[in-house]
Amino acid sequence: MVRQRATAKRRGNLVSAALELARGAYCFSASSFASSRSVSVPGSLPLNENLTFSLPDLEGAGLRRLALGEWVAALSRQVARRRRARAKGGCGRRADALRLLMKFVVLIPVGPKKKELDRLSDLLASLFHFEAPEECGLLLVNDGNSTVKLQELCSRFDLLQCGILENPRNGRGEGWSDGLAVGILAGLRRIAKEMPLAKFVIKLDTDSLVINPFADQVNCFFDQNANVGLVGSYLREPGGVPKNSIADWSPRVGKLRRPFTVWKSKDGWHFQCGFWSRDRQIQKLIREALHSGYVLGESCQGGGYALSAKALQKFNDRGLLDDCFLFLNRRITEDIIVGLFTRVVRMAMADFNDRGQPFGVVWRGLCAPPPELLRHGYAIVHSVKDTTAYLERETRTYFAEDRKARYQGRI
Prior knowledge:
Helix content is 42%, strand content 17%. It has 15 helices and 14 strands. The strands form four sheets. It has a seven-stranded mixed beta sheet, with helices on both faces. A three-stranded mixed beta sheet has the order 7-14-13. It has a two-stranded antiparallel sheet with strand order 1-2.
């Protein structure tokens, strides 16, 4: 047994690459160089004082003479493996262990207005009142706001993993529809690559609010319904009222199937031809989704929905997230696109918005007065913006006082 001190990672790479060529006779752990900086090599393979091998040494150990090309190939394979490991695992074993604790990732787009920062601050305060920040990740999609101020907001919470992604649209497209979709698809791609161990992704808008815990309930639902990839307000609104969004969006999604048409956006007129480029790819995806039972325009309302880890992984494996500009200038919202992708990968969508279930989500306003939302057991509500029935300031104040009362133990 020979025990030597490794003084540099480069030398460790060389040793591990050489031993890889002789892995049939020797066992070696390259990670020991990075951790203890010390290595034990079983067997009688000779090393010189600089921890390098010479060809006569290898021959003396009963190994054949290695050509220079084989050494280079071995070193190249070793470097490539370590690069892939860094890309997947981030910061090594400790980061992997931490990510095993990650229940979910929250994906939130943030618009350019100052009011968006105030809304985001209240949303995060409500979210991390009911869910432990050290058990979840957060990804903000910044669409023109101050990155510094977003970082300050994130620093208030002891998050397991946090990131800020600049929306790559650079002002192109509509900020509420296809421009937002660019950022959401880019965000899902980043989560799939950097936070792959999260059990699900929860997408929220800044005018959403968390009023009860939800993570365990959502995770349990996905565990019990392996074929479901997307949950929220799907075919009906909270309280059982049928949604009319499918009828509203069906003509627009159907327009994507035409061989020739034009789209008007704030950037001008855009010609669609279904025989090449992105238009052809979109039509192919719609055909695949239709074969899986897709109904044009179906989706879970975008103010708050949950995407399972299995569905996200399938999105990534199919390459659906590779081109975040696929629907740019088509005026299609991100929730419609996520619903389409869910059917493409042959998974289902489901309502999860009955009383006692998390998603009290509708397109505009609240589905019930704030006291009733609490009494009915909803966890995520949308939208708290001003309507004729409810004022945003009063709604936020009511739920903030409820959180304070719970914290003080009065409820």
